[in-house]
């Protein structure tokens, strides 16, 4: 029997009063089904003044991925919270531009240096996201990786 590795993930950390969400990999229908409920729970459990979504590690984004971003935006609007995106690779950012979702968020080129995640994966020593973190996440969690 072959084990199927997810091609996506999400990490989070709280920096001061900012919730930083780092999405990575292919944010598609499967990712939306798995990450959507976890994202909703995380947003409810971690009140913050702003939510920053780092898209730099995202390699693919489709309509389902856009739904995740809309969910974040709606949450922020309902609570009077600032919503920000860190621009990703050009093809991912282009999807946001074509759908005009880019104008619904404040756009950043990078996270502040002190917010950048430092340190390797605790399981394998590789930088996040790594294969070990995805495998471990599928079976119960890994450091700050939500999936």
From TrEMBL:
InterPro entries: Anti-sigma_ant (IPR003658), STAS_dom (IPR002645), STAS_dom_sf (IPR036513)
GO MF terms, alphabetically ordered: anti-sigma factor antagonist activity
Domain annotation STAS: ranges: 8-101
A Pfam family annotated for this UniProt entry: STAS
Domain of life: Bacteria
Membrane-spanning intervals of the chain: none
PANTHER family xref list: ANTI-SIGMA FACTOR ANTAGONIST TM_1081-RELATED, ANTI-SIGMA FACTOR ANTAGONIST TM_1081-RELATED-RELATED
Family classification: Belongs to the anti-sigma-factor antagonist family.
Protein name: Anti-sigma factor antagonist
Species name: Streptomyces boluensis
């Amino acid at each position: 029997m072959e084990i199927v590795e997810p091609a996506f993930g999400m990490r989070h950390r709280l920096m001061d009063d900012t919730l930083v969400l780092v999405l990575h990999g292919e944010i598609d229908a499967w990712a939306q089904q798995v990450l959507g409920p976890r994202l909703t729970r995380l947003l409810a459990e971690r009140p913050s003044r702003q939510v920053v979504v780092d898209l730099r590690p995202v390699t693919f984004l489709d309509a389902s991925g856009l739904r995740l971003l809309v969910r974040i935006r709606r949450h922020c609007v309902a609570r009077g919270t600032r919503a920000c995106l860190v621009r990703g690779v050009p093809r991912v950012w282009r999807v946001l531009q074509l759908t005009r979702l880019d104008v619904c968020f404040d756009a950043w080129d990078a996270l502040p240096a002190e917010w950048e995640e430092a340190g390797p994966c605790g399981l394998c020593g590789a930088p996040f996201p790594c294969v070990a973190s995805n495998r471990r996440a599928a079976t119960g969690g890994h450091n700050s990786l939500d999936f």
